[in-house]
Write a structure and sequence with these properties.
Elements (H helix, E strand, L loop, with lengths): L4 H18 L17 H11 L4 H14 L3 H5 L3 H8 L6 H17 L7 H5 L6 H12 L8 H10 L9 H9 L8 H14 L39 E11 L2 E6 L10 E2 L16 E6 L4 E9 L12 E5 L10 H14 L1
Parallel strand pairs: 1-5
Antiparallel strand pairs: 1-2, 2-3, 2-6, 4-5
Helix pairs in contact: 1-11, 2-3, 2-8, 8-11, 9-11
Length: 345
């Protein structure tokens, strides 16, 4: 915890001075000192996309989404399948479903304007504590305490918080709260994110150029990279599944996965449930894919006609193989179709 008011003020002053010189140029960000007003829709969209996803991966998706759906009203009116297809490859597909639900709630319940408080934002579908705080601070200038993985790392090191995550989150938040300035809280949050992303990095932090290194308690420690302390990783279970390649007249049969569950609402190859046991059929190709909580081996099997088993054919359509890029298949199924097409080339 910080106890000296002058130290608290000095931290934010040093950090914001550094940010004014060194802020990353990002497509969703208003540059410090520009005088422009952030668009809450763009701030919210970026924050949702950036959850557990890198800036590099998000940039192209953000540009395509905002070009196709430039306002929250445009997104709210979009067809579900179009949004899910546009999201394909970005992962964590529940975010896309929540994105639509939130946009529609903003339009239907708030006249197309995002609430300007943390509490109001948190009441929207799919908006949790982090996103509510980030949008409140960046878009509306609220003095919210924004804590993402980068900020966790900065504070854990600066205050030498050695309590393991996730128990340390409360301690980190308590240490950060008094540092948030009443003016420029949005810039402060983004400066903390940039500091963690570019200077106080997980490996080989650049302490020599850090604007708050003078009073960093972890500075010079040989074990600085272990902060924040993380619990031991658990071994991920391995699952297996079948997918079916059903081809006719240059097209393949695609289905739509159930709205709830893994890859919910996405177009996919038909197939059975995923289980702990390897399939009896050897198939023609297979791919390995990692999800957050388990790894999967998916085996592709030829079928002549859509299978009759419940859930295997489901609702579907014939999709031209030459136009698979436009199908919006999630990464797992795109890896499988690519491997199949490479085999047949």
């Amino acid at each position: 915890m910080f106890s000296d008011a002058s130290v608290i003020m000095s931290f934010s002053t040093r950090l914001l001075a550094w940010y004014d010189r060194s802020a990353r140029i990002l497509p969703w960000r208003i540059a410090p000192g520009s005088g422009e007003t952030p668009d809450p829709y763009r701030v919210w969209l970026a924050e949702v996309m950036l959850q557990q996803t890198t800036v590099a991966a998000v940039a192209g998706y953000f540009a395509r989404f905002t070009a196709r759906w430039p306002t929250v009203a445009d997104l709210a009116a979009a067809d579900d399948a179009d949004v899910m297809a546009a999201w394909a490859g970005l992962g964590y597909y529940a975010r896309a479903r929540n994105l639509l639900a939130c946009a529609r709630a903003v339009v239907a319940e708030h006249g197309g304007r995002f609430p300007d408080s943390e509490a109001g934002l948190r009441a929207l579908p799919g908006v949790g504590d982090y996103t509510a705080a980030a949008v409140a601070a960046i878009a509306f200038g609220r003095a919210a305490v924004v804590v993402d993985a980068n900020i966790q790392r900065v504070i854990a090191r600066h205050r030498l918080i050695e309590t393991p995550l996730p128990m340390a989150k409360r301690e980190i938040r308590a240490a950060l709260a008094p540092l948030v300035p009443g003016d420029r809280p949005g810039d402060f949050a983004q400066a903390m994110m940039d500091l963690g992303a570019t200077v106080c990095t997980p490996r080989s932090p650049a302490c020599a150029i850090c604007p708050v290194t003078a009073d960093c308690r972890a500075r010079g420690r040989p074990d600085i990279e272990r902060l924040p302390v993380k619990p031991p990783k658990k071994a991920k279970p391995h699952r297996h599944g079948l997918a079916y390649w059903i081809e006719r007249d240059g097209a393949i049969w695609l289905t739509r996965r159930p709205d709830k569950g893994m890859l919910g609402g996405m177009r996919a190859l038909p197939g059975g449930d995923w289980s702990d046991d390897p399939p009896a059929e050897s198939g023609v190709v297979r791919v390995d894919h990692g999800f957050t909580h388990f790894d999967l081996t998916l085996t592709l099997v030829h079928r002549e006609v859509p299978p009759e088993s419940p859930g295997a054919a489901a609702e579907g359509l014939w999709w031209p193989i030459a136009e698979l890029d436009a199908a919006g298949l999630p990464t797992l199924y795109r890896k499988l179709t690519d491997k199949m097409l490479e085999r047949d080339a």
